[in-house]
Amino acid sequence: MHKVRFFFYGTLMDYKHPNEMIETESERASALGILYDLGPFPGALFDTGQVTNIVYGKMVTFTAPTPEVAEGLLTQFDGYEGYSPDDLEHSLYIRKTVEVLTQSGAKHECQTYHFNKMYGDMTNYAKYVASGDWKKFKEQLSEKSDEEDIN
Length: 151
Hints:
The protein has about 150 residues and is of the alpha+beta class.
């Protein structure tokens, strides 16, 4: 069996793999980084030096029966995230390995998607998510929008 660990902090947090051959386990987790809201999805920066901010998400462990199935899983997520290892200049995200701390206190190395700064300076158009939790941030925006519609 071949395990692939991911740290998801945005739209993939609720992902369920349809392939019955791939087992999925998940646990709340966090990693050092800076999180931004890019509108329909978030972008995080994980290798910014002296970062003390925390990005919250889920560590998802996929267990595949063969190395080929595990590699296919990486390729599938790379496509979803707009990552091409052969074309970094035009990749929206870059897949990197980060250390995460799970809710149970365990540390793991996970694959994650780091916003590609070569793609553009997101600080010009993105909203900084101070809480580090994109899902809660979007819920709060939705509640504010609903309140404005009522008023």
